[in-house]
Amino acid sequence: xxxxxxxxxxxxxxxxxxxxxxxxxxxxxxxxxxxxxxxxxxxxxxxxxxxxxxxxxxxxxxxxxxxxxxxxxxxxxxxxxxxxxxxxxxxxxxxxxxxxxxxxxxxxxxxxxxxxxx
Length: 118
Fold this sequence. Notes:
Elements: H1 3-42, E1 45-60, E2 70-79, E3 84-89, H2 91-96, E4 102-108, E5 111-117
């Protein structure tokens, strides 16, 4: 047995471990998405008075090597009780909402459905 065969066996083991870790991460992300979706579907659709108190974006990816950058849009609403809810919204909804807007927020669990300004 020479040094190269030992190196290749170590590489094979590391490759298998890294592959399994990547697979486990992908599976856990998919399971988390399914659980969140089921929880949202089981939640009642609520419509409450709310005020837009904050907006933010989150960008992932870098746009290099034909890998696109993705922008996620979030809006924080404050309801009458004083509780704040941050919900993911589409880019067009994000553009239409302004901090200080008041109206009726409709949501289901963590799923944004709509906001009707007054």
